[in-house]
Amino acid sequence: MTEHTTRRYNDGEVLSGVQRRRRWTPEEKVRIVEETYLPGMSVSLVARRHGIGAGQLFTWRRLMAQGALTAAGAGEEVVPASEYRALQAQVNELQRLLGKKTMEAEILREAVSRAAGPKKTAVALDLVAGGRSMTAVADAIGISRQHLSAMHNRPPPKPRGRPPLPDAELVADIRMLVADLPTYGYRRVHALLRRQAREAGRAAPNPKRVYRVMKVHGLLLQPHSGKGEERRHDGRVSVDRRNTRWCSDALEIGCDNGEKVRVAFALDCCDREAMGHVATNGGITAEDVRDLMVATVEHRFGPVNRLAEPIEWLTDNGSPYVAGDTRRFACDIGLVPRTTPVSSPQSNGMAEAFVRTLKRDYVRVNPTPDARTVIEQLPVWLTHYNEVHPHKALGYRSPREYIMQTREAPSGI
Predict the structure, then answer these.
(1) Do 6-68 and 245-405 have matching folds?
(2) Which fold has domain 6-68?
(3) What is the DSSP letter of 396?
(4) Is the dihedral of CA 167, 168, 169, 175 positive or negative?
(5) Is the pTM for the entire model greater than 0.90?
(6) Is pLDDT larger for residue 279 or for residue 61?
(7) Residue 36 backbone zone (phi > 0: left; psi -120 to 50: alpha; other: beta)
């Protein structure tokens, strides 16, 4: 028989060995959910007592509440969600087929009515060129038929500027140079062509022309593959009201004995308070992120089934955050998932700045002998950050000081 042990820390659990998944009966689920409504109990506490995920228990509780309210309000049996979705899909398809042509005609008519005179003429000319009747097009768009006929039958405009020079001779000269000097770019190739032209007593080609010809014929050098410029970010991560946008990210802390501690956290983008965290010496999973969501919601609003107002949940594109189950769970409890563009950490700059602050001001100046010590110290560090650590954007006040001085009830008390 395979032996395994379980070691529990304050904020994490380390499992070794094979664990069998527990199957809960409906009666057990009802009993566990009813415990969450008892005085002094919370979803997180009941979940830890029974050894299940807080996100899973939160989902059971919400589904039970929704089913009871729906049946009582309608006075009828509750229709299965799958059957309702199938019927709704059929209705949507019928509506789409019925109104498609009508909506297209209305959109086209409105677009033409908003267009100015020159734009109307261009649209009319395209329709006439496609074989439409000139009279019908003029009447439908609302322009003069005589003007449309004159524009349609006018002679082509005369070419402007000098005619382009033939490129065959230039291409041959460039190919000859590139065959002997394959590392030369268009600047050095142009310098050699200019030298040859000076020796032959003819006009030298323009460098822009050399670049165009080499680009058309695939003779340019491959672009440099080194580090590119920083991605520009013109948006704003911070907000002016609390509980409008929350951001989350994860970081890794190395221990002296070689162990790694992975931490995921959540911040309010207004008061910068660290509202919750999960820590483990394994990898951050989608279930850990869902538990973090539950802990953050309970930290701010207590044991509620769904947020009264939607709150944005800003993260990067890490696999635990973009997982389908995580995004669906976030929507179920009232969070609105928002992800940053690829390769743009600036778009989640507040979370990135918190990672730097945590490592600089806490991890580097405290002993980190092993994972257990780090996980035990994390609550102390975050409490100090919330209550003592000054923040420039908050007028060099701590998050809790900012909350108190702006006359808003601080959370997590």
Answers:
(1) no
(2) Arc Repressor Mutant, subunit A (1.10.10)
(3) S
(4) positive
(5) no
(6) 279
(7) alpha
